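Notebook entry, structure prediction.
Reason for the run: the old model in the group folder had no record of what sequence produced it. Starting over properly, with the input documented here first.
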Amino acid sequence: MRKKQVTTAVLTALICAGGGQSLVHAGHDENLTEYTLDDVVVEANRIQNKFGDTITEQSYYRTGGDVKVITREEIEKRHYKDITEAIKRIPGVTFNNPGYRGGEYGYQFYNNGVLINGDSRVIILVDGRRVDNAASQRIGGTSRRGSKSTGVNLDQVTNMENIDKIEVIKGPGASVYGSDATGGVINIITRKGGYKNYGSLDISSGSWRKHNYAVTYSGALEDDPTLHFFFSANREMSGDTKFKDGETGEVLSLSGSHYKESGVNFRIDKDFDARHSLRLWYNHKNGRDGYPVATPRAKFWNELDWYRILFEVVVGRFDGNYKLTDQGQWWTDQRQPGYHNIYLTRSMYNISNDFYNNDFDLVYTFDRIKGMESFARYYYQNHRYLGRDAFQFSRFGGGGGNGAGVGYAEYQATFPHGTTFEQWYAWAKARLAPFPAGDKDAIARWVADTGGLSPITDWHRERNQGLEVQYAKVLGKNDVIANVSYDIAQNYSRRRNRNGGYDISHLDRKTWTGYVQDKIHVTDKWDLTPALRYAHYSSFENTNVADTNQGKGSVGAFTYALNSQYMFDPTASMYFGWTRIFRPLREGDYSIINTEYPAPLRDERGNVLTVGVRKELGDRTTLAAHYNWTNMTNAIATLPIWSPSRNDFSAIAVNARQKATSFNITLDHDFDKHLTMSLSYDRMKDHWAAKEGMRLDPRWGYTDSDDVNTAMNRLRPANHYALNLSYENGKLYTGLLTNWYTGNNTRAFTARSFLLLDWNINYEATKDLDVYMVVSNLTNTAYETTFNARNGIGSSAMPARSVLVGAKYKF
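New structure, fully documented this time:
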């Protein structure tokens, strides 16, 4: 391969440092970043080692594998407004989004989920530190769904102005990331102030009354250039999102999906010398997001179907005296097509979910050698989530899983007891139905009838703090990293119960972890990295739930990893990795205990193998392929199992065997110095084996009543193709991202395939002013990224076409 010549500015920054080289590189000279590397090549504005791996400040952790890096330069030119938007171009990365921003605490389906290689067990890091909480009920909780998600909403971690790079690592990557990073790792690297004071102001506005404001200021003190600072603040807000219905083609407004989010953060770095530094980082992010639960199904949005659904879901479950009884078995789209349309009544009552995040990180680095850092770290996180509902429970069809979705006591108090259905019909139509259109007085009449109800709030608070110490040493051909950490995680929750009161619960869990990793430079062409990790987790009994503490005692385990990279020649290399997986049970894995399957859940265990090759096919073309194989001998799945005592199927969390494979291939090509292309294809497949004797619900898509694999693989597209084009010429930059999903099952999606286009353009009007436009979903495609059997097909329709126009001023 022809190596691009390193620029004069970069060459002058090369200095010797402990057997390696120190390279200073940045897209802007006012925001320099230091790396200490072995053998590096600067190509097309990327810093790579001899294996073709992109180098970052924290890439010394990595031990080979399929890694993609979103740089600050790309973030600036593409004007990504959240992390999900930034990483959706990465092959093998998929999302489960409910179709609107935010999500309800404790319910996986109503949150923004990320999957790597089809696996939701993804670890989120900030500057190499995990940001999840071991006692969290953030995703899972009492939803009776079970969850293997990380418990972190990716877009609530920090604002985009605070991010310097995003590393996306497919597969476990390295022992440092944890023994439960089955799917992969997303590492967010924060921005550090440079040597020159520099600021920016970014303002944009667009579809659906969307407005974004962001300001940054960074640099170093004039009388102490070794003290660097970075500050940013932002606010994002939007009115109700519009979506396109996949069955009718109508573009509708998703009432109740408006949001307002803000963030402030700063980072201060004191560089005592080349090997010693102190870093203080603070991050605050908060928001109030509307909670519409589901997007309406236009096919059934008519007066006849509205009253069919309303009568059979609600009135059909009243007793002879018109007393509301448990209607839980009617809460499915399978039994009531279009059922989730009743959720739209919630929008009249300004239901929302709020979050308040405060993160603090203090790191003292006492040595640096060959890019590896020895440090001591203290961190503290305090996250609070609030669910604001209008009444005791939400309106029709949303009551925290208890079946009394109308506000049990309030509804009975106002229901015209003993009347005929015709009388009730007229009463409901006047107060609750969305007909006639434009009736804005419905809420006022309801409040008057009920005597003036006040809103209620469920709240959840997560706190965790910890200490981490790392020591790195070069011993001949061995680069050794040893690390020990201690984390205290706490969770406090208050939830409204069916009796009108509150359930208070408290969870806490303490975690000790330690690992040692040895990157052995066997030859100039071959690195071998064995690693050993130990983790111990304390018990985490729920103080309020006595019957669900099976298997929640303290547990510890050793896990192992072996990774290797080999360079055949300067144009070709390969990697191999094996990791032993251990994922301890979390609160979100549990559902209500089924007495017919009383065996307690066990911790997840298994193995992950990754292998890949990279080949340069000339000066401008690179081909890479990645294969991932996961074999979980004791995975957790929530399956609809027949319950004789209930005489129905019930979703129960059980242990099962999981085998999953994923494959992706990427072709990168530079047509010339202006136009570049990245083309990729990926495919994922799961195979699950349930316990013998379990009868599964055929209505979930299973064949022969016991084939879980049929449904599991239908819940995502079979194939994903992506094309990313970038053109840059002087002051103009434009990019087009194409995502094509095929092989969708129409029992879960509204179409067999979805073709999505996102386009942006950036123009440097002056040296200090950029103007830009971003168009999402350019062709106004109707599509979904997830499916829920209860709510039905199309209940998570994603946003329609939107346009954002903005300007960024640098000072």
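Summary: The chain has a mean pLDDT of 79.
The old model has been moved to the deprecated folder.
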